[in-house]
Amino acid sequence: MGDVIPFFYYDILARIIPGVMVLAVLRYGGLRMPEAWGSLFTVGWGTVIAPLVIAGTAYVIGVLLEVTWYIPGFRCVAELVSNRAFQSAHDNYMWLNPGSRPDSRGGQRLKPFRDAAWDWLILEGTEKPLVFAHAHRFQAEMKLCRHALLPVVFFLVLVLSNRYGCWTQCTLLRGWYLGLGLVTALLFAWGTYAREKRRWLQVLISVDHFRWRWPPPLPPAQSSVPQGGC
Questions:
Q1: 3-state class of 210 per DSSP?
Q2: How far, CA to CA in Å, does 125 sit from each of 8, 68, 213?
Q3: Cβ(86)–Cβ(139) under 8 Å?
Q4: What is the Cα–Cα distance from 230 to 225, expressed in whole angstroms?
Q5: Residue 86 burial (CB count, 10 A)
Q6: 77 band by pLDDT with thresholds 50, 70 and 90
Q7: CB 102, CB 113: distance < 8 Å
Q8: Predicted pLDDT at 171
Q9: What's the pLDDT score for residue 201?
């Protein structure tokens, strides 16, 4: 059960909650549920089925939001944030075992170390679940903030489009929604960077504590000369 909880927590934060936000924005933007679906929400079985339908739909939307960040333009932004967050965590971390710290001098990039350390932590999680669970939690919180940016931007587009009178009955109300959307977007943007930095800091703590080295030491070279003579 302990192995399942981190992934369940990840799915709720990184996929279901952003998916619910998309459904909420679509609903207030004028989306109407097909009448044929009304039977799912009747008293009786509907009280059980309706939450499952909403959660399942939100999960699918959350997966699509995650896929969006693999589109080239979005991926560049995600990589930039991740690189900056790792660089900041690396520069500010006080190493207990200097031998585990990568040498970033001489033009050596930290990205290979970052990727290798994350892969190592995933594999280490099979033997020490709590080690990976901590970093995985911060990754889920980072993706919650990152994925939630998209429905917030969609909300701002709807407000600016001046299409739905329920949001734009007066200039003051419209300004309120715009201000709320902008502040929320800024908080999610900062949360994406802050949680990503915290994730990489947790990775560095694990690397330092378990004295993991990168790159791993090469095996001793084998002599090509046969032993015992020429």
A1: coil
A2: 16, 28, 17
A3: no
A4: 7
A5: 24
A6: very high
A7: yes
A8: 64
A9: 93
Residue 204 falls inside a structural domain: yes
Question: What single string gives the DSSP state of each residue in 45-103?
Answer: THHHHHHHHHHHHHHHHHHHHHHHTTSHHHHHHHHHHHHHHHHHHHHH---SSGGGS--
Rounded Cα gap, residues 157 and 164, in angstroms: 11
Task: Please count the CA atoms within 13 angstroms of the CA of 105 that sit on its side-chain side.
Answer: 2
pLDDT in tens, 165-222: 554 456 666 778 888 889 999 999 999 999 999 999 999 988 888 877 665 554 555 4
Query: What is the chain's percent helix, strand, coil content, to nearest 5?
Result: 70, 0, 30
Q: Are 10 and 66 within 8 A, CB to CB?
A: no
217: cis peptide before it, omega within 30°? no
Query: What integer is the mean pLDDT of 7-11?
Result: 74
Candidate from 5-9, 117-121, 190-194 with smallest mean pLDDT: 5-9
Note whether residue 35 is domain-resident. yes
- C-alpha separations of 197 from 89, 132, 190 in Å: 6, 16, 11
Q: Note down the domain range covering 174.
A: 5-209
Length of the chain: 230
Domain count, the chain: 1
- C-alpha 24/C-alpha 20 separation (Å) is 6
Is residue 222 one of the residues assigned to a domain?
no
Q: For residue 216, is it within any domain?
A: no
pLDDT at 2: 45
Spatial contact of 219 and 107, defined as CB atoms under 8 Å apart: no
Banded model confidence at residue 1, pLDDT cuts 50, 70, 90:
very low
